[in-house]
Amino acid sequence: MTDFPKRFYQRLLLDYDHKLNVEGINGKRLAERLAKLAGIGLTPNNGSSRMGFSEEERKAKKLVKEWMKEAGLEVREDGAGNVFGRLEGKENDSPVVMSGSHLDTVPNGGHFDGTLGVLLALEVVAAWKEKGYQPTKPYEVVIFTDEEGSRFNGGLSGSGAMVGEVIREEQLKLIDVFGNSFEQVLEEAGLTVDGYLSAKRNLKEIAAFVEVHIEQGKQLEKENLPVGVVTGIAGPCWIEVSFLGIAGHAGNTPMNDRSDALTAASQFILQVETLPSKVSPSAVATVGKVHVHPNGVNVIPGKVTLCVDIRDIHKETRDLLVDKITESAKQVASDRGISVEITENFRITPVPISIQMQGKVMKAVENHVRSSHLSPSGAGHDAMIVGRHLPIAMVFVRSKGGISHNPMEWTSLNDCVIAARVLKDLVEDLTM
């Protein structure tokens, strides 16, 4: 190992409790694999940069494919670049249980997001091999291509292709951050448009999909729990709101004779903060982007455009929150005697996880942890795409400080191994 992967490996093992190595799960093996992948696409400040369809993503996949073969998996890659490692079951004609995640990262991201889900899915197979265990149903470890979307500002490309949620005309319109067409990017990756579109799987072949992912939040840390049960994956709705006032001289316009778009926007932003709790405990709304026009120190703002990110794991309450926020914008504008323009940029359907699947995860978690913590996922995942078509389950693993998409991202090896044991129990239940 080079210097950073070696230090990363040593840090993982520094406070590791080797008593967690049971039933074939091996923390040292997991640490070695996390460290080796951390060295692929390493940035100057020790982050990870493996953009979707990049050479770095392919190199990471190649390494994991070698580990899949060592574990006895039959490995194949589809036209979207998704990698599948299959373990035959005793009843091999049964639908397969699938688990995994992705290996691509955001620019200068961390070393656990996505990667951990792939390696834990593989660790289950390695443990089975050591113990001579064969599941009743077949099992597949999957690496989905381009989950993060850094290439085309979209993401979930591989899982979308697998379930058939891609439209040829729309894909061919895509231009990446370097100015290359979708077709060019595929060709550079050794893929084709026709191959990408043919990656659609017969979903009757799949019984369920399980994804383990770092929490990217602080709830498990606050509860002092290593793992948690995900109740659903929030679907975002983005609306763009423009308050239209009248620009004027900051010195010569009296305070009682202004049409200030920024004060209206400010009032609206404060109202947005209060609305989610009125519709759902899992709903959130964020104003994270604001443009002020003309943006002069001595000019009353004549126009303010802002974007609101609205999310919940339940479609009904998410849509109700969108309506309440929209009405709030209109009411603020009316009260202040200015106009407002509202545009919906996109709306993605949330994916709740069934009570039955939550129960199976809870049972597996409580085999290893004192209690279960239930929480929604505010971020999108490959499980969100797959969950529109198939039963899914998700397990969260504690994130230090809730930090993610950052070189400081960290999950202890103890927590990783506990998550591996939970996943093993869960998959054994699902493959019975």
From TrEMBL:
NCBIfam families, per the entry: hydantase (TIGR01879), PRK09290.1-5 (NF006771)
Keyword flag Hydrolase: yes
Annotated Peptidase M20 dimerisation domain residues: 233-333
Residues involved in Zn(2+) 2 binding: D113, E148, H405
Cofactor: Zn(2+)
Classification of source organism: Bacteria, Bacillati, Bacillota, Bacilli, Bacillales
InterPro entries to which the protein is assigned, alphabetical: Amidase_Cbmase, Bact_exopeptidase_dim_dom, Peptidase_M20, Peptidase_M20_dimer
Protein name, per record: Allantoate amidohydrolase
Binding site for Zn(2+) 1: H102, D113, H213
One of the record's GO molecular function terms: metal ion binding
UniProt keyword list: Hydrolase, Metal-binding, Zinc
Similarity annotation: Belongs to the peptidase M20 family.
Entry note: cofactor: Binds 2 Zn(2+) ions per subunit.
Signal peptide span: none
